[in-house]
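Researcher: Quick sanity check before group meeting.
Model: Go ahead. Protein one:
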Amino acid sequence: MSQNVKKLTGLVAATFTPLTAEGEINLSVIAPYVNYLIEKQNVKSVFVNGTTGEGCSLTVDERKQLAAAWCQHGKGKLEQVIVHVGCMSIKDSQELARHAASIGADGISVISPSYFKPINADALRLFIKEVSASAPDLPMYYYHLPGMTGVALEAADVLNGIEREIPSFQGVKYSGTDLRDLGQCVCYSQSRNWSVLYGVDEQLLGALVLGVHGAVGSTYNYLGHIVNQMLSAFNGGDHTQTRALQFKFMEVITFARTLGFDVSVNKQVMSEVSGLPMGPPRLPLLPCPVSKAQAIAQKIHNFSQGH
């Protein structure tokens, strides 16, 4: 399958889910959202219904509607639309996988179940295999996020031999901080032409040195243009400029973290920076005070302007 698949590389925006003031999904924002990512951030691939998108707080039907809207409005504009289909229920994940195939998604991704947790890598591979079988022609990416799932398995163990069970497997979104495990994933993926994408935005440079092929993150929604400059500097061998941009990026995130940089704050920051109405988060997340988001947005503006 890898011969026919366009490799997922570069920056991928983990998209927010726009909600109305009443807490319903707001599909009218998706079309301008696509244009904003392309025109203002030079980000042309998206990861829909993941953690940033509050995917696990949405119903199966809502996730279908959002995925369909991203595929519809992204057609001919976005390079890749990857749909996260992971759920606590394997049946729901399979249904979302089938739906992703039917709407023309470019790939699917699955996070580990986190209530009843897989006891070992074999169990998790079997879960991913059964979901993938519902959309066998779509590239499958494992979404590794131990900080949220509480599943402490090493991603390299999950990848080991997975191609024998899942022919459509194409890589991993690695959102952990263990660079040794990440390096093992990159090493294993090299001969298989898989994509390893890093998901901890503020320490991307460490992952680039290890050889990741791109990154999936929430901040690329509004800082993608800056991080693209960092990628260009890195690829051009200008390590001084790369480090300078990474350090400035770290400074922004560190400031945001002092204010409590969770998904709800991040969502409000996106509204402030982009001008797109993302709306509130869904309970149990609480809305972010606008003043907090504005302070972070000002920091981002200063960073973007080179101050």
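Researcher: Fine. The other one?
Model: Protein two, sequence then structure:
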Amino acid sequence: MAAGAAEAAAAVVEVGSAGQFEELLRLRAKSLLVVHFWAPWAPQCAQMNGVMAELAKEHPQASFVKLEAEAVPEVSEKYEISSVPTFLFFKNSQKIDRLDGAHAPELTKKVQRHASSGSFSPSGREHPKEDLSLRLKKLTHAAPCMLFMKGTPQEPRCGFSKQMVEILNKHNIQFSSFDIFSDEEVRQGLKTYSNWPTYPQLYVSGELIGGLDIIKELEASKELDTICPKAPKLEERIEYETFDILEDEEVRQGLKAYSNWPTYPQLYVKGELVGGLDIVKVRN
């Protein structure tokens, strides 16, 4: 067991200088390179280093690197690393994605997606743009009221997002949210899609309502309550429990075979599989 853990840890390369990092970018240009900007004082970084080690075992075709953000400031400044943990994804020596925060499921999903996709070629750049536009349309319509914010409602990562959540909660407005730090493509693309340069952004029925200033104006004029859907009464809410499949590898792999469902999340009701995200959306 100890030997296996050591082997996994060894699969994550530690970089200590800007020159070493640039050399690694060139050497691993043909494969996916995942870089964890971390700090030894942050416990969540230690946790995510463990997740990286597990991902390195599962994806031997990809390369995994950890870089102490404060020890190599020139690299951190170049890629605008303002908090830890932050993860950057590279292919062909170019940054293709970013993840801010200790989101193990999102990191796993991004690694799976980028590791399985081919290299980007100049001739294929227009098609992903079409895909992004469609994806943004789906995201803005994912719930009757969608908030695109920095962080989550439980842990906002900027003052404006925190104020927006407080206003929506005060008015008992039912909303879903998307952490724009979790997807760099969405973070940049939505600014163009909405023609709105800042976050947070609030959508109702797929239409942009505005940012914090607009929401404050709607609140002052008492229009906010008529525009946004209200949360259901307490007795109407669905109660559920969760299990983090990253905590138990045996459950993670075994449930795929047990349910005959290859991906996560999976929703069960009274012990019966309902389905994944797409199925739940259809039934909603």
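Researcher: One line on it for the slide.
Model: The longest helix spans residues 43-58.
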